[in-house]
Amino acid sequence: MQKHALALDTFRVIAILMVFACHLNFFDLAMVGDRTILHPNYYNIGGLAAHFFIVLSAFFAAYSYEKSIAQGYKAYVTKRMRRLYPTNWALLPFYVVLCLILGFYGRPISQMIVDILLSGLLLQELFNFSAKVFNTPAWTISTLFILYLITPVLMQPLKRIRGAHWWVVLIIVLTVGDIYYRQWLTHMKPDNWWLNYASPVCRITAYLEGLALGYAARQLTAPGWVRNYATLWETLVTGIVVCCLFYLPVNNYVCDNIFFLCCPVVIAVFFQKDGGRLSSFFGKEIFSGWSRYVYSFYLAQFLFLLTDYLIFGKVLGLWGHLSHAAALGIIAMNFALCVITSMLLYHKLERRI
User: Fold this and answer.
1) Distance, CA of 343 to CA of 139 (rounded, Å)
2) Cα-based torsion angle of the residue sequence 18, 19, 25, 30 in order, rounded to the nearest 10 degrees
3) CA–CA separation, 214 vs 62, rounded Å?
4) Burial of 210 (0-12, 13-18, 19+ CB in 10 A)
5) Could you say which of 78, 141, 212, 283 would form a disulfide bridge with 7 (CB–CB 3.0 to 4.6 Å)?
6) Which residues pair with 31 in a beta bridge?
7) Distance CA 3, CA 7 (A)
8) Structure confidence by residue, pLDDT tens digits, 31-47
9) Closest CA to 46 of 142, 164, 144, 139
10) Is 163 buried (19+), middle (13-18) or exposed (0-12) by CB count in 10 A?
């Protein structure tokens, strides 16, 4: 990855921590009383992080598209499969076994084979019946993989666009359209988790937003008033995002929409070659270097939550009786195990492929 994109790597690390925090609601039912680990509105930050991952992934897919597709579509898909499949395959058997032990899966053996096959191929998001059967958070990876497969089709109309103003208009339209399309789907199908949250149908507008942003980055140079005051713009957009996170407990609806609007701006501002001081700070290896473990961490983190429920719920019968301090201790242990597992998967598996 180019030097000026290292700050975005750090944001990927922050986003995966947001996903981890989102899943801490798993422990709310484990504790005595009505205490919660976080304010209920903060559990929505996982959705914000997933949106950021999709837009950022599309951005880099478009930015490197010509090089990626140069050897043909088959090579393009094969590269994606070699990147995503092995880690998924390494973890999937553990999820299957845990779900069966916990009684979370009760379908006939023939349906289980189909579900395992779809999950192994990262195609589970094509079908509502298989979307969140085993590793629920893997829906993001599946959605992205399916969108990767149709990227050459989605890129065709973007190649015809000329003029900086048209790119700006398109990105604004897609960003605002994504917000209203999501709201409309949620209103029309409030109980359909797959259709209004996880499916490629819902996420395609966000992915198109990232593709447009990435392709525009290849063709355009930031104007002088952006380059000359890079630190100012970085500070401004970062400040808005941080304020939204603090304001979430008050009004998550407004904060979500502001975050969606800021998402392409954050990517565009921090991708500049001559970035400001915040780019230099977030681009330090001590922060950005952890991004290599993000994919493995994402796939592994739910595994330890299921293991917690098995040990403290099914075996020890303590689920619903844990103290707040005990829950925090288990969370800290989980985080450490996730980090260790993701490092092992990266160095022993991902890096060698």
Assistant:
1) 22
2) -110
3) 5
4) buried
5) 283
6) 322
7) 9
8) 988 888 888 888 888 88
9) 139
10) exposed
> How far is Cα 319 from Cα 251, in angstroms, rounded to an integer?
31
Is residue 213 within 8 A of residue 59, CB to CB? The reply is yes
Going by the DSSP 8-state scheme, the letter that residue 161 receives in this structure is -
Residues 6+ apart with CB under 8 A from 95: 119, 134, 135, 302, 303, 306
Is 46 within 8 Å of 18 (Cβ atoms)? yes
Contact between residue 325 and residue 333 where contact means Cβ atoms under 8 Å apart: no
User: Sign (positive/negative) of CA torsion 23, 29, 31, 33?
Assistant: positive
Which residue stretches of the chain have pLDDT < 50? 1
pTM for this prediction:
0.92
In which residue are the tokens 């059967």 written?
133
Q: Which class for 257: exposed (0-12), middle (13-18), buried (19 or more C-beta within 10 A)?
A: middle
Query: What residues have CB less than 8 Å from 39, skipping those under 6 apart?
Result: 248, 249
How buried is 104 (Cβ within 10 angstroms: 0-12 exposed, 13-18 middle, 19+ buried)?
A: middle
* 286-325 per-residue burial string, b: 16 or more CB within 10 A, e: under 16: ebbebbbbbbbbbbbbbbbbbebbeebbeeeeebeebeee
Token representation of residue 8? 């975005």
Q: What is the DSSP letter of 287?
A: H
- Could you give the CA distance from residue 205 to residue 260 in angstroms, rounded to a whole number? 12
- Alpha-carbon distances, residue 218 vs 59, 65, 79, 117 (angstroms): 10, 10, 22, 38
What's the rounded Cα separation, in Å, for the pair 284 and 51? 24
Instruction: Please return the burial class of 2, using the count of CB atoms within 10 Å of its CB with bins 0-12, 13-18 and 19+.
Output: exposed
Predicted local confidence at residue 353, as pLDDT: 67
Name the residue type at position 157: P
C-alpha 60/C-alpha 288 separation (Å) is 16
CA atoms within 13 A of residue 116's CA, in its CB half-sphere = 19
Tell me how far the alpha carbon of residue 270 is from its chain's centroid: 18
What is the reported pLDDT for 325? Answer: 92
Q: Tell me the C-alpha distance between 188 and 197, whole Å.
A: 13
